[in-house]
Design goal:
D-amino Acid Aminotransferase, Chain A, domain 2, 8-stranded mixed β-sheet, 294 residues, binds pyridoxal-5'-phosphate
């Protein structure tokens, strides 16, 4: 959805000390040009981002998102983001979100080639209506990511654990899923291990255990999955990070794609085979995910 508010951020060094960073922010017209044509984010996708869900003006899990932004920055050799500055930027942008569900997007780019500093900005937009996928579920296809399960360790320059702006392949995977008559995709390694969706994490229920693919295998550590696991653990459930072969996905008792704005979308079919949707459990998970979370 188009942004209705945009804020340029002049990033400060991570060790900067002050209480108020408002003077480092400049609201700009979200529909007018704001970036230099020399921007490496647009030329090469060389930058990182986060998308934060906002419910009735409350940005969810800001700490976890800023930690992942810092992790992505480290993997990409970008200057460490100043947590206090970014936290204030999130609050400033979230203040522009009205009632209902919205999304705040944070972007940190390498900037202009040979330029003095990285560029950064944040936007607010209304969230799409996600009631369909949250209740009816999503049909997914498994798609080969073209890497084996050792690729992340062997080739760190693939930046597999970083949330980089280079999402062209993720979007191509979604188009391929649509071509195959599905709504979404799950990436799997060439040796048959479940990774993640192009814009979501995978969570399975196997008996009374909840399982998600182990991080370190070249996937993002999802903030929604982490928050959900904390909630499930608190409710007495067993949760685990494991290597999940595709055969375990198709045998699971229930499964979801989870992400910050769509929240939990139950999987209704895998590669054309119907999958049981647990409507009651899904509704309770989404009630939790819609409650204010820090
Ligand atoms: N994996 C990928 C590739 C993603 O793009 C996303 C979110 O966009 C996720 C997982 C889920 O992360 P989060 O729950 O923090 O939104």
């Amino acid at each position: 959805m188009a942004a209705h508010f945009a804020l340029l951020i002049a990033p400060v060094p991570a060790d900067d000390v002050r209480d108020d960073y408002m003077s480092t922010f400049a609201p700009v017209d979200p529909s007018a040009p704001a970036l230099s044509v020399g921007e490496l984010s647009t030329q090469r996708g060389d930058g990182i981002f986060e998308t934060i869900g906002v419910v009735d003006g409350h940005p969810q899990e800001v700490g976890a998102h800023l930690e992942r932004l810092a992790h992505s920055a480290a993997l990409c050799d970008l200057p460490a983001p100043h947590a206090g500055q970014w936290r204030q930027a999130v609050a400033r942008v979230a203040a522009e979100c009205g009632p209902g569900e919205s999304a705040v997007k944070l972007i940190l780019s390498r900037g202009v080639e040979h330029g003095p500093a990285p560029t950064a900005w944040a936007t607010a937009s209304a969230a799409p209506d996600n009631s369909g996928p949250r209740t009816g579920g999503v049909r997914v296809v498994t798609l080969d990511r073209g890497i084996d399960s050792g690729a992340s360790e062997r080739a760190p320059w693939l930046l597999l654990g970083a949330k980089t702006l280079s999402y062209a392949t993720n979007m191509a995977a979604l188009r391929e899923a649509h071509r195959r008559g599905a709504d979404d995709a799950i990436f799997v390694t060439s040796d048959g291990i479940v990774l993640e969706g192009p814009t979501s994490s995978v969570v399975l229920r196997i008996g009374d255990r909840f399982v998600t693919p182990a991080t370190g295998s070249g996937i993002l550590h999802g903030t929604t999955q982490m928050s959900l696991f904390e909630h499930l653990r608190g409710a007495g459930h067993d949760v685990a990070y494991e290597t999940v072969p595709v055969s375990a996905l198709v045998r699971a008792d229930a499964a979801w794609l989870v992400s910050s704005v769509r929240l939990a979308a139950p999987i209704a079919a895998v590669d054309g085979a119907a999958f049981a949707v647990d409507g009651e459990l899904t509704a309770s998970i989404n009630r939790y995910l819609l409650s204010p979370r820090d």
